[in-house]
Predict the structure of THOC7 protein.
Amino acid sequence: EVIRKRLLIDGDGAGDDRRINLLVKSFIKWCNSGSQEEGYSQYQRMLSTLSQCEFSMGKTLLVYDMNLREMENYEKIYKEIECSIAGAHEKIAECKKQILQAKRIRKNRQEYDALAKVIQHHPDRHETLKELESLGKELEHLSHIKESVEDKLELRRKQFHVLLSTIHELQQTLES
């Protein structure tokens, strides 16, 4: 309970309030001191308490300055971290673009490979032209054969017609 009260009274626990109270009491004793020796010892105690208070105040000021510098340092680090995060977001966006481009390239390559496989199943242009030329010659040859067969067929028709007309005449002659 005593420690709790002291901590409540003395905020950061440095004992400054107690020292100031002791200094005030020492000053009152010094003012009321009767002998010079007692006054001198009170004076020395006051100086010692005062130097302790000044030391504590200097220490507190140094801690305060250090805290301010640390806050500035933390702000600087915070800004650096924000910049790194922004840079990381930019890199992520750039990498996403690269991934999309790589996917598109991969898709195109797969399509090219599929087309190449289809093309490989067909003969090349030189062989196709040779085959086309060969088929053209064969078609020409077959059309000559067709013409000659048609000519023969026409000739045979005429001959058959002549034969039929001769037979018909022969029949009429036989009948008459």
Q: What stands out?
A: Helices lie at 2-9, 16-32, 36-121, 125-175. The longest helix spans residues 36-121.
